[in-house]
TrEMBL record:
Protein species of origin: Cyphellophora attinorum
Keyword tags: Repeat, WD repeat
SMART domains: WD40
The protein, known as: WD repeat-containing protein wat1
Region of interest called Disordered, as start-end residue ranges on this chain: 242-300
InterPro entries for the chain: MLST8, WD40/YVTN_repeat-like_dom_sf, WD40_PAC1, WD40_repeat_CS, WD40_repeat_dom_sf, WD40_rpt
Entry-linked PROSITE patterns: WD_REPEATS_1, WD_REPEATS_2, WD_REPEATS_REGION
Family to which this protein belongs: Belongs to the WD repeat LST8 family.
Biased composition (Low complexity): 276-297
Length: 383
């Protein structure tokens, strides 16, 4: 079930039933008109401002739980990740699949680069893939630690940082540099944020904070200083004498089913300068339980930093800890000004926090099961 909350009053203004499956992720379209609810096998689109409970559009094609969903900045296409080991790009006008990329393991998360021309996805095998939509191929493979599931990825609003968190509670960060030809990544930080599972990780819109959610019942807020010299602490793993080059094939040539060309009138996948997207409608969902490659035969830039940097762990400065959760914290969302954070937890509550004071501004109760995902739209008084 999806619930819509008024931020200031804490009143639940609307509910939408989602009886066929649990809801794993929520995402609001950039024009603030529709809510995408990702469940098992499908994504359903609902009209936010209408009282009509019916589905506006249904995206079907995945064969297992959908774990991530995000929209192009103008809403022309949508990307999803799934436990069926695929990442798919959908035309939001026709509901048809435009691209399909394959991992070797179930995919836990996917995000869109602000340039709108690249995707970043992460899987349970510990692999992060960067996909170039224009060239329709994977260009980078990042492996922070072999066989340690990457649970979440986040990209800075200006495309300058990539952050990832894994099931050991570790956070990895890369600087991202982009030219007209290529994206270059430089490892810059690795540290242990939590002693157990990290469930979600999110860079704030102003790129000054990093929020990490965990099974340890806390959300930790870390401070980022992009001008800080010691943000650049982690060297890339040097090639060893006599070893194979670090670029390698992650999975060999793709089969035709792994990559689908766009239709003639489909979306254009060209990199462009991304636009900042604020949020304002808060929607949370609950469900009874939560589950604990490549499209080109071109060589990839593959980075395995963990062996080189394990002795150089240096955490970001800890800004604050949000500690009133009673169970696992599954998801979070920053306000557009980065001053507030909404969290959802297995204790059935969604909470609105003032980050600076680490205080709860409002607590939303009414879920009959654990709340596991949230979307925030803060341009209006409704959340």
């Amino acid at each position: 079930m999806n619930r819509f909350w008024e931020a200031l009053s804490g009143i639940c203004s609307r509910t939408i039933q989602h009886p066929e499956s649990q809801v794993n992720r929520l995402c609001i379209t950039p024009d603030k008109k529709f809510l995408a609810a990702a469940g098992r096998h499908h994504v359903r689109l609902y009209d936010i401002k209408s009282s009509n409970p019916n589905v506006i559009m249904n995206f079907e094609g995945h064969t297992n739980n959908i774990t991530g969903v995000a929209f192009h900045c103008e809403g022309k296409w949508m990307v999803t990740s799934s436990e069926d080991c695929t990442v798919r790009v959908w035309d939001t006008r026709s509901g048809q699949i435009q691209r399909s990329y394959t991992h070797d393991h179930p995919v836990n998360d996917v995000v869109i680069h602000p340039n709108q021309g690249e995707l970043v996805s992460a899987d349970r095998g510990g692999v992060i893939m960067i996909w170039d939509l224009g060239d329709n191929k994977c260009t980078h493979q990042l492996i922070p630690e072999d066989d340690v599931s990457i649970s979440s990825v986040s990209i800075a609003s200006d495309g300058s940082l990539l952050a990832a968190g894994n099931n050991k509670g570790d956070v990895y960060m890369w600087r991202m540099f982009q030219s007209q030809e290529t994206t270059t990544l430089s490892p810059c930080r690795v540290f242990n944020a939590h002693k157990t599972y990290l469930t979600r990780l999110l860079l704030s819109p102003d790129i000054k904070l990093l929020a990490t959610c965990s099974a340890d019942h806390t959300v930790r807020i870390w401070r980022i200083d992009m001008n800080e010299e010691n943000l650049e602490l982690v060297p890339e793993l040097p090639k060893q004498a006599g070893s194979e080059p670090i670029a390698q094939y992650p999975g060999g040539p793709a089969s035709p089913a792994d990559s689908t060309d766009s239709v003639d009138d489909g979306p254009s996948f060209q990199a462009r300068q991304g636009r900042s997207r604020s949020s304002s409608n808060l929607t949370s969902s609950s469900h009874p339980s939560r589950p604990s490659t490549s499209a080109s035969n071109a060589p990839l830039d593959t980075f395995k930093p963990v062996n080189a940097v394990i002795a150089n762990r240096h955490p970001l400065p800890l800004e604050t800890i949000l500690e009133s959760h009673q169970r696992w914290v599954w998801d979070c969302a920053f306000s557009a000004d980065s001053a507030y954070l909404v969290t959802v937890c297995s204790d059935h509550y969604a909470r609105l926090w003032e980050v600076a004071s680490a205080t709860i501004i409002r607590q939303y109760n009414g879920h009959h099961r654990g709340a596991v995902c949230v979307a925030l739209n803060d341009y209006s008084s409704q959340t």
